[in-house]
Backbone:
């Protein structure tokens, strides 16, 4: 079983304290749901509503083409294409993505690296964690990096929600969202999520929650096994 599918199976086992609300939407509604999990990579899974419960399935949606929406994002795409080639959403919405966004913005602004980021780059450390740390400390490029990451995370979560008609909810899994909950609530994520033109009223109906319980994949695997032996 894919980890993203396991997380999706685990959603129904989560308690209220296992979730943090980002957008209320129409709480308690039935219908399809989805999981968008930014961590080491970008895992995405769907949950279709069969009339009585959700059934989870894995996707490879994180590997679909990244679509820029303004001049800065087009510059980001061009920058990454020169270095990597084809750019998927996973290249910008993940831990790796935070590093890629930072590297682009530092070059774009001709900025020097703050201490923690410089050390991570030099020593092969966790660049994403260092950028988040320096953003809290007030580094302008790191702050812009995290803000752009949140915006792009929201946009791709909205893409996934539209494709699955996720009136049953959008669940943000992975390790990044719980560590950056206030960032996701600050406005950029939701701005990206809702920015779907004439589909905005539909997006406003979809609840968005962060999964706080990091045991969700284990809960999901247990539910999947029980379902197969019932």
Residues:
């Amino acid at each position: 079983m894919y980890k993203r599918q396991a997380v999706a199976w685990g959603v129904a086992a989560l308690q209220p304290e296992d979730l943090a609300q980002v957008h209320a939407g129409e709480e308690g509604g039935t219908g399809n749901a989805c999981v968008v999990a930014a961590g080491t990579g970008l895992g995405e899974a769907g949950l279709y509503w069969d009339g009585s419960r959700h059934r989870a399935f894995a996707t490879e949606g994180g590997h679909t083409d990244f679509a820029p929406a303004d001049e800065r994002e087009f510059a980001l795409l061009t920058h990454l294409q020169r270095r990597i080639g084809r750019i998927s959403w996973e290249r910008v919405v993940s831990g790796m993505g935070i590093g890629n966004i930072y590297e682009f913005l530092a070059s774009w602004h001709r900025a020097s690296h703050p201490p923690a980021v410089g050390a991570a780059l030099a020593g092969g450390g966790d660049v994403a964690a260092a950028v988040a740390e320096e953003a809290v400390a007030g580094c302008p490029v790191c702050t812009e990096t995290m803000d752009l990451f949140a915006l792009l995370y929201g946009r791709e979560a909205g893409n996934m929600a539209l494709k699955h008609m996720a009136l049953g909810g959008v669940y943000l899994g992975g390790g990044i969202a719980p560590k950056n909950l206030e960032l996701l609530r600050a406005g950029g994520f939701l701005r990206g999520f809702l920015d779907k033109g004439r589909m905005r009223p539909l997006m406003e109906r979809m609840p968005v929650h962060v999964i706080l319980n990091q045991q969700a994949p284990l809960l999901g695997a247990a539910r999947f096994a029980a379902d197969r032996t019932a």
User: Anything to note?
Assistant: The radius of gyration is 18 Å. The chain has a mean pLDDT of 93.
